[in-house]
Records
---
Amino acid sequence: MKFSVMVNEGPYTHQASDSAYQFIRAALSAGHEIFRVFFYHDGVNNGTRLTTPPQDDRHIVNRWSELASEHDLDLVVCVAAAQRRGIVDPDEAKRNSKDGDNIAPGFRISGLGQLIEAGIESDRLLVFGD
Amino acid sequence: MLHTVNKSPFESSSLKTCLSLVRSGSDVLLIEDGVYGALAGSTHSPLVTEALEALRVYALEPDLKARGLSGDRLIPGIEVVGYDGFVDLACTNDKIQNWL
Amino acid sequence: MSKAKKFMYINRHAPCGTVYAVEGLEVVLIGAAFEQDVCMAFVGDGVFQLKQDQDTADTGMKNFSPAYRALGDYEVNRLYVERESLEERGLTEDDLMPLTWEDEDDDWAEKPSIHIVDRAQLSDLIEEQDILLNF
């Protein structure tokens, strides 16, 4: 089965990111494919490399980066939502004259079309949010 | 269709809305704070108990355990599943509606 | 691309209090370019998104309600509003923005985009969809 997952909330404030992560891990363990993980609304905040959570708690952002690296996942942060919330990659920083970028490894910034494409190309699309 | 509900019925109308629109024979999976909808003896229990006559209702075990809810506190007929069961439900149902 | 999928965007949040209505609408408008079979449903507080006379000036927030008028131009012309949700909130169809679209197969006749449906009809509509997104 080819799954895509949409994550609509940021790390820690809601369980959405955790639930999405655990679902994806279970799907991968069962041999399924993850076509794309699309981060929207505050979900784009899963893509900043500047978080410093307490050491005795899960590091949500790093966890996504590691999962992406291990399984070659496509983690896409919506550009419009990212611009609103200050999630920036080097290209966006240059384009919008920002003095830095903060995108975490394994994430890329792209348009809402990537979400629609994920819906079209996948067998199942799940949404985790508030 | 697989429906998931992630909100407590005490906090949000999501469970009520889901159950008012879901078709007979569907699967409803309670996740995150939605697992509180599985509790027996609550003011929402009759709604879920009645729903069980036409639907299969599941509760996600890791979320139950995280909240200190054991199987014996649940409405009879609710099936407890893990994330692997969640994945299976997502496979066996053609479509998914995630009530937020 | 294979056969178009049926997308339904289910709107359950009121406008203004959260960003979900606005960012949901952005998905619908961008998604309209993909030639899929798209419709929207408004349930619960989502019906408030279509309320006429929204004026956000004194809140300092942008008024996004005019953007709903563009939906017809993007061929999103089936906006299903749940009757029970309207009634529970003391609203009628007259409280909603008169959203329309132009039917090129009917000499560009202007037709209403909003369809008031009852819960049972909405349940049937939901069941027909391939992809359901909630805002």
---
Amino acid sequence: MTVFIIRRLMQATIVVFIMSLIVFFGVNVIGDPVDMLINPEADQAEIERTIRALGLDKPIHEQYLFFLKGVTSGDFGKSFIFGEPALKLILHHMPATIELALVSLVMAIILGIPLGLYAGLYPERRVSRGIMAGSILGFSLPTFWVGLMMIMLFAVYLGWLPSTGRGDTAVFLGIRSSLWTLDGLSHLFLPAMNLALTNISLVIRLTRAGVREAMHQDYIKFARAKGLPMRRVIGVHLMKNILIPIVTVLGLEFGSLMAFSVVTESIFAWPGMGKLLIGSLLQLDRPVVVAYLMIIVLFFVIINLVVDILYSVLDPRVRLRDQGT
Amino acid sequence: MKLSRSLCILLTTTVLAAPALAEDLTIGLASEPTAMDPYFHNLGPNNAVTRHIFDRLILQDEKQNLKPGLATKWKPIDDLTWEFKLRQGVKYHDGSAFDADDVVCSWERAPNVPNSPSSFGTYTKGKTVVKVDDHTVHIKTAAPYPLMANDVSNIAIVSSETGCNAKTEDYNNGPASIGTGPFKFVSYSPGDSIVLERNDDYWGDKPAWSKVTLKPIKSGPSRVAALLAGDVDMIDQVPTTDITTLQKNDKLALSQGVSNRVIYLHLDHDRADSPFVKAKGGGAIDNPLRKLQVRQAISKAINRDAIVERVMEGVAIKAGQLLPEGFFGVSGKLKPVDYDPNGAKELLAAAGVGDGFELTIHGPNDRYINDAKIAEAIGQMLTRIGIKTDVETMPRSVYFKRASRGGPGETPEFSFILVGWGAGSGEASSPLKSLIATHTPAKGWGASNRGRYSNPEIDALIEKALATVDDAARQDLLAQATEMAINDGAIIPLHYQVNTWAAKKGLKYIARTDEATLAIGVVKE
């Protein structure tokens, strides 16, 4: 197990390094941040000064080496736009995104699994068909459109929930979050739901497929023949066996929720990392983009590791071993 | 009995509390500032927000006319010195007094902020600030400098005790964000909100709002939805597609005003073989854009009324020069060119390109209101008179680099481009110096002259205007230079952008030509 984890971490370092190369050179091909930053009234001398101040006058490989040197001491460079360390900026925006991703993950689980279970156990019922049709809609409707419709319906016409922004925050258990206040939760509901929609559909379909397949397996038949109550058959024997694909997918999806909640965050003006990323991309704030993507790569590597470990907990047949050795 | 008494108290307190609540103002902003430090980033959104907290010696009113701020009087006392008399009895938000030392150290800090992406050196360069007494300062230059007051109106004044030695973070976190302005800093949470409260000791007209919250909402539809849902009281940069719907909504009130931004076409005046100009069929051609008649033909081929009515949905004013009427230095003689496709064809024939040629227009698609649609309209209009025009638009992050220095040797890459120019100084020398004057890096002229237009006569006029301190004489020189440039087709003006703000019924925003959104400009009707 320990060897497995160490090997994984070493692989992660290589992946992050390659990623830094691709991203750094990639973003440096596009446009010129100076045009994004400088006041149009500035004259040529002023433009030159800014180019030098940002280090953009140096050849790109020198810029990269300088960047690598910084990274080894935890310095991802300073944001062109905010003048603050890129890492600090990302960490500042992270709690809002974690909140959003967590809540939407919870929504996906508590809505998706029961609905999928129902649809799988009673596939012929009308309600089940309705659930499945809904899940197709959840997949195929574009997030930005659904988000705007939700704002129009719940905020503009019904006036139940606030349209945009993050609510009041409070400190609980040493964590400052908008999860602890009513205002915060009311602001969180719409964007989290918007973000969760695809995942709810995904979980419904996975659960349903799992249930349909498992119900015909011998161990379920045996459990029922043994006279176990249906509740126990479903809750223990069935659930344990269908959870593996769901855990895998949700693990990866949590990564995507964290990393790429860009659309939802933009529409709901949610002050998270996604909004920071899109702003940085549009304004060519290269250090932030590079740092962001490197952190995300690390994040995915860690999530995959956690998923692998969860497997072995859920299914004793899975042994943590490197395939290659 | 007991119950009704507490009910009574409850009712009274509610009634008493109501007016205080009504003084809260929440504004949804399209663009977010990058810091609270007034000298960190010399760009529109930052300058608008810091104006709430920090006064300038001279303020710009909604039409960018200069009016007394922390200075009550200013005048040139000789060719090289301007004298500023400072307002007496002004207090900072922390109670300390404002005097000449604050001005001197503010001017020292303004151009020297570490990591500043766009510095205020543009305004402070070549000027020395000298304290004469506690309420008088002199600003000296090496040569006569008529735009002194305009430059001064761009430099915020911070406190010598708390502000001058502070770092940008100190401003963002609050301790250094102490000015003399109409609002006090309360909190700044990037991406989320900026909260301000009224400065009850403000020296000027006190704002009507006790608490102001500025919320950045970049996405246009979301901004409109936030207003409709009542989460914000006012928004700026209303998308043109929503204007008609919002106008019909009787719970809302719209404010519109022309801006200092002209949308125009720049053409390649320089290269004989211009990369995106081709003969009919795609062969090489001697760049016809260098002929005056061709430039005039292009201007005549453009139906500005149609662009304003159809593309801009009525929310723009057709343009005939560099700045709209009413600004300093505009010419009274220049009118928008009328649509005349037949006249245009005749001009093309007279220029020897009666059969037409091929052209590509390049433009941004996320910088100006409806920019990509305008470029498409122009493409169609020119194709109609025989200039087969391809349209290529791209994000501004890519566009501006290529348009300014994408070609070999850092020359402009394109031949025919759609751009806009907002005159930050609020007078005509700004576009003349940047767009029309010959590209001369050593002098800082023609920095945005992406057509490389060059006319020594106009250069001489601009030079003279920039050394003429007498306002009336300078106005004439600027107007004359503008007339020459426009008549020579240096650029082809299309329209002036009109900005739209939308607020709840009962509120009105005094539209500003500099496109800034200021809480002090929101008034109750």
